[in-house]
C-alpha cells in the first residue's frame, strides 16, 4: 500500500524567518542607549545639585565644571547654623509623618469598608475619591484657607496636614480599594474559623498581604507632603511654621540669590526621599505591579 501523500504546509502557516543576529544586536543597543539617555537626563540634575552644594561660590558662578576643583562644606554649616533651616526641616518632618499616618489609617478603613461591606453607592465613593484627586492643589488652597480661618486653624501645621489629606487620602483609597478587592475573602473566613475575630483576621491576614500596597501609598503620601509648596505658601504665614520648600524659596530674592545655600538645602531635603525609596524599593515595586495588575 502506498503511503498517503502529506500536504505541504501553506505559506501562511510556515514560521517567519528569525531576526538576524545584527538586527537583534542593533535593537538591544538601541534599548540600552535609550535607557542610558533617560538615566543621564534624570540623574544629571541631581548630580549637579549635589556637586554645586560642595563647590565654592566663585567656582560655581564663574568656572563651573563637572567635577569641582575645590570642595567645601561651608554652605551646609551656614545653612544649619545661621538660618531657620533646622526648624523648617522639623516642621516638614512633623507634617509629612502626620500626613502619612492619617492617610494610611483613613485610607485603609475606607477602602476595606467599601470592599468588604455592602454599602449603597460605594462605586460613587470610589469615583468621588478619584475625581477629588484630579483637582489641582491651587484650586483647593483658597477655599481651604477660608475654612481654616473660620475655625481658627490658619497658620498652623495642622491646617497644612488637613490640606495635604485632600490630595493623599483620595489616592490612598483608590489604590487600596483595587488592592483589597482582589484579596480572597476565603482567607479571612478561614482565619475566623480558626478562632480569629473579624478585626483579628484583618490585622493578621489582610494587612500583611497588603504590605506592598500600603508601602506604596505611604511613599506617595510622604512624597506629596514633603515636597508641597502650594498649600504651604497659602496656609503658612509665620516664620516659625514654615516648611523647607518655603524656606528655600525665601532664599531667592530680587537682589540676593544664595545658590549655594539653595543647593545644600535641596540636597538635604532629598535625602529622606532617597533613604525611604532605597529601604522600601522592593515593596514599592511590588505594590505598583500588583496595583497595575489587580486594580
Automatic annotation (TrEMBL):
The keyword Zinc-finger does not apply. Residues 89-280 form the ABC transmembrane type-1 domain. The chain crosses the membrane at residues 29-50, 89-112, 124-145, 157-180, 201-226, 262-285. Keywords: Cell membrane, Membrane, Plasmid, Transmembrane, Transmembrane helix, Transport. It comes from the Bacteria. It holds the Pfam family BPD_transp_1. GO terms for biological process: transmembrane transport. Belongs to the binding-protein-dependent transport system permease family. This is ABC transporter permease. It comes from Paracoccus contaminans. The lineage of its organism: Bacteria, Pseudomonadati, Pseudomonadota, Alphaproteobacteria, Rhodobacterales.
